[in-house]
Write a structure and sequence with these properties.
The complex is a heterodimer.
Chain A lengths: L15 H6 L4 H31 L6 H6 L11 H20 L1 H15 L8 H20 L31 H30 L12 H32 L10 E3 L2 E3 L7 H35 L6 H14 L15 H29 L8 H23 L2 H7 L3 H31 L5 H27 L19 H31 L63
Antiparallel strand pairs in A: 1-2
Helix pairs in contact in A: 2-4, 2-5, 2-6, 2-16, 4-5, 5-7, 5-8, 5-9, 5-14, 6-7, 7-8, 8-9, 8-10, 9-11, 9-12, 9-14, 10-11, 11-12, 12-14, 12-15, 14-15, 15-16
Chain B lengths: L2 H18 L10 H34 L14 H30 L8 E8 L2 E6 L29 H4 L2 E3 L2 E4 L3 E8 L4 E5 L4 E5 L5 E6 L4 E6 L12 E7 L1 H13 L1
Parallel strand pairs in B: 1-5, 4-10
Antiparallel strand pairs in B: 1-2, 2-3, 5-8, 6-7, 9-10
Helix pairs in contact in B: 1-2, 2-3
The chains are: A mainly alpha, B alpha+beta.
């Protein structure tokens, strides 16, 4: 632990550009990430609405589709290739620019330094660079829509040869796929810079008394997420560059000999392995799931303790669970590949390890219920989203017990069962974590409170809405509905499932519309919300000891000293029902 | 507070549709399919109980421990409980995997029986071809350069090779009932996936690899085969059928095809 003054960012910069654009302040950078994610989530959601519309109305002409995509939706009817490119971009934008970006780079950037008592991140310039690199990656990604052939259609997993052989495998597989790969590579660079910064900050910049085991669980999840990012994105970066080389430089990392695509024999490739890509991709891709969900787990833990006025149940067990999820997360990638043609014996190993990773996840759920047990629960909107997270995490988690068994995956692989599973847990549960974090930290970030009435209406509509959208997917999977189909018109047995798809589409339109309530609440509260006190939730961690919003160097030159653990609520004998981490040691606590 | 009944109602609705089997598997047509369904039901019951109890407990604590003026309990946890539920989940999860092992092993560790009928499968964007050896029982020579879809030679059979000349190529899969079948699968362009819901079986077909899959269908009928790995814009249309026929019908079909 070094002294916080070892690194100086004391004087607030002047001028709009230094303050808000090329800012070195972790709080501004955190907000930049947040708004980048907010833009991306609405873009990604709009794409999903178009998909849901097309799936149930594959032949209906909509005039503005035709205006938006004169070739891919000529006459207003979306082509299957347009559907697939919307699907690819939906997945990519959501996974990379929302789920990876907001919980970690957004909230983590803003609150990690404050929660551990630091003035800023360890490397402020690197921090600024990682945001602007992410921004560049987003521009390049969105540009893929506007090039000839449009965005790629190979899905966010980009399996070669579909993604590797160029134009001939389909429209969008020309420049669109190249831009996709370039964007992903840039994004990996940005994430690596961010990960190094998070790790260095947590290791080096904790204030006096902030032992590792006194860190709020949010900090633990950000730290482990950063380690996952460092190891995972490095591999994806390499894989992405190799695939790009296959496409533009005639190499054959992933393309085997003897390919005949669209009646053309590809003589230039030989010796590559399509499975190699899958191994590299999922070596990143599975930890990525935890990159998306771990910070949400941290935020949920933080909120459950705060709003039930109880210490977290089993802090140490929670830390060990986070660490073991992080470790095991790197040993289970093969469960995405049970049907891939890889050695079937390895499936057994991957499946046992996959079930093993369910154990720490279950521990977390038990501990959350244990935290609530005997508590005094306040139902502010932030807490509702945290409770919603627990419910969704359970629902999304238990379906994994089916998919983690190679025997059962023999049927469920690439059906809607999988789509329902990962949307529940990696999609909506993680997004509920973000909503919870938004409502919880908004007062600190903007100095005002969000509107609780709007918040609750939005919560209930969204909570019921996401269940209505994603639960039926499990039934569809059981009925054998394959995923990534642009229409259900050509396989007979899918015809009778179309009403379920119609229900899901309507649920999606309504739930998406409900998100306007959130936007209104967010922007209205920024300007007109009730002014927030320093510590509106009577929480204990360091960000609640500083003004809202915090000054440029967070602690106004004072170096905080920590005497207590982060979850000292309802301590017997204490005056208030919470003890701040910085309260004098003489205040009784067991932390 | 309102959240508790909402969680309970959602839980009951979700469980209801699983119990009512409103949208469900098609009936299985093989021994493997029966074993599969048994393993699925075992897992469903275990998972159903976990799911129901967890959601119910969540709703319960929301009601029971709402803010009613009490002071919250001060407790940092309970190591015995922690150990108990950790080992209980571990046993349960690993137990389920082990129970399913036999099913996986029968499909993937066991070789096809020696009397299995070999059928070559060739997948391409966005069609299937199935090739049967002719009366000589041999697959003859094939060459990518001879592939000509419009001339009816999607697998590039070399007519000059007598072993090839009598091979049968079909756009849909025909198999005799109650006989072991061994598919030898190839793709010539991108990754596809062979899936027959009634068989409870699917397998990726990867270009550059030869991937076997063996099974035995015990019920006569026509079953759909939808491609189940994203293969391009026509993925949703890449469908064929598997017809399970009596042995006599199968032999007759082969004879008819051979004459063409």
């Amino acid at each position: 632990m070094s002294s916080p003054s070892a690194h100086t960012a004391q004087h607030a910069p002047h001028g709009f550009i230094r303050k808000y654009i090329f800012s070195l302040d972790h709080k501004v950078i955190g907000l930049q990430y947040y708004f980048l994610g907010l833009f991306s989530v609405f873009l990604g959601m709009s794409l999903s609405l178009l998909m849901r519309y097309h799936m149930v109305n594959p032949n209906v002409a909509v005039s503005w589709f035709g205006k938006l995509w004169p070739t891919a939706a000529a006459g207003g009817v979306m082509t299957p290739e347009l559907y697939l490119s919307l699907m690819t971009m939906h997945g990519t934008i959501m996974v990379f620019f929302v789920l990876t970006t907001v919980p970690q780079s957004g909230f983590g950037n803003y609150f990690l330094p404050i929660q551990i008592g630091a003035e800023d991140m360890a490397f402020p310039v690197l921090n600024m660079m990682s945001f602007w690199t992410t921004f560049l990656a987003l521009i390049v990604m969105v540009a893929a829509f506007f090039v000839q052939g449009g965005a790629p259609l190979s899905g966010w997993t980009a399996y070669p040869p579909l993604s590797g052989a160029g134009r001939i495998t389909g429209p969008g597989e020309g420049m669109g796929q190249n831009l996709w790969l370039v964007s992903i590579a840039i994004f990996c660079g940005a994430s690596l810079m961010g990960a190094i910064n998070f790790i260095a900050t947590t290791v080096d910049l904790r204030c006096q008394g902030m032992r590792l085991m006194r860190m709020p669980l949010t900090c633990w999840t950000w730290l482990v997420t950063a380690i996952l990012g460092l190891l995972g994105f490095a591999v994806l970066l390499a894989a992405g560059v190799l695939l790009l080389l296959d496409r533009v430089a005639g190499t054959s990392f992933f393309l085997p000999a003897g390919l005949m695509i669209n009646d053309q024999i590809l003589v230039s490739h030989k010796g590559g392995s399509p499975l190699l890509w899958q191994h590299l991709f999922w070596f990143f891709g599975h930890p990525e799931v935890y990159i998306a969900i771990l910070p949400g787990m941290g935020i949920t833990s933080q909120l459950l303790a705060t709003f039930s006025r109880k210490p977290i149940f089993g802090y140490k067990a929670m830390v060990y669970a986070i660490l073991s999820i992080g470790f095991l997360g790197f040993l289970v990638w093969g469960h995405h590949m049970f049907m891939s043609g890889m050695n079937p014996y390895s499936a057994m190993a991957f499946s046992v390890l996959t079930m093993a990773i369910g154990v720490p996840s279950a521990i977390k759920t038990f501990n959350w219920i244990g935290t609530l047990w005997g508590g005094k629960i306040h139902f502010d909107t932030a807490m509702l989203f945290a409770l919603g997270f627990v419910s969704l995490f359970v629902t999304g988690g238990v379906s994994g017990i089916f998919l983690g068994q190679p025997a059962l995956d023999l049927y469920f692989h690439d059906t809607y069962f999988v789509v329902g599973h990962f949307h529940m847990i990696m999609g909506v549960a993680a997004i509920f974590g973000m909503f919870a974090a938004t409502f919880y930290w908004f007062p600190k970030m903007f100095g005002r409170m969000m509107n609780e009435t709007l918040g609750k209406i939005h919560f209930y509509l969204t909570f019921i809405g996401v269940y209505a959208i994603f639960t039926p997917m499990h039934y569809l999977g059981i009925a054998g509905n394959p995923r990534r189909y642009s229409a259900f018109t050509d396989v007979e047995y899918l015809g009778k499932l179309i009403p379920v798809h119609q229900f899901m589409s309507w649920a999606a339109y309504v739930t998406a519309t409900a998100q306007i309530i959130f936007l209104v609440n967010l922007f209205w509260s920024m300007r007109k919300g009730k002014p927030a006190p320093i510590n509106p939730w009577h929480a204990t961690s360091l960000e609640w000891t500083v003004p809202s919003p915090p000054p440029h160097d967070n602690f106004a030159g004072v170096h905080p000293v920590v005497h207590h653990g982060p979850y000292e609520y309802s301590v017997p004998g204490a005056v208030a029902d919470f003890i701040m981490q910085t309260d004098p040691a003489s205040v009784r606590s067991e932390g | 507070m309102l959240l508790a009944p909402v969680v309970w109602v959602l839980t009951v609705v979700i469980v209801y549709f699983f119990a009512a089997k409103t949208w469900w598997f098609p009936p299985p047509i093989s021994q493997h399919g029966l074993a599969y369904d048994a393993q699925f039901m075992r897992t469903l019951i275990v998972v159903g109980i976990i799911f129901f109890l967890a959601q119910f407990a969540l709703g319960y604590v929301i009601v029971r421990f709402r803010n009613d003026g009490r002071r919250a309990e001060y407790s940092h946890g309970n190591n015995r409980l922690e150990t108990l539920w950790t080992s209980a989940t571990a046993l349960l999860f690993i137990g389920l995997v082990i129970m399913g092992t036999k099913i996986w092993a029968a499909v993937h560790f066991d070789e096809a029986p020696p009397d299995a009928i070999p059928i070559e499968v060739m997948a391409k964007q966005f069609a299937w071809s199935f090739r049967y050896p002719g009366p000589d029982g041999k697959f003859g020579r094939a060459d990518l350069h001879l592939v000509n879809d419009s001339a009816g030679n999607p697998m590039g059979l070399d007519d000059k090779d007598p072993a090839s000349a009598d091979d049968i190529v079909s756009a849909s899969l025909k198999v005799p009932v109650g006989k072991p079948i061994n598919l030898i699968m190839h793709s010539r362009d991108v990754i596809h996936n062979f899936f027959v819901p009634e068989l409870r079986m699917k397998q990726d077909i990867v270009p550059g690899m030869e991937i076997p899959l063996h099974f035995q269908a015990d019920k006569i009928g026509i079953y759909e085969v939808p491609c189940s790995e994203l293969c391009g814009l026509g993925h949703f249309q890449m469908r064929t059928t598997m017809q399970v026929m009596s042995a006599a019908d199968f032999e007759q079909w082969k004879r008819q095809q051979a004459q063409k």
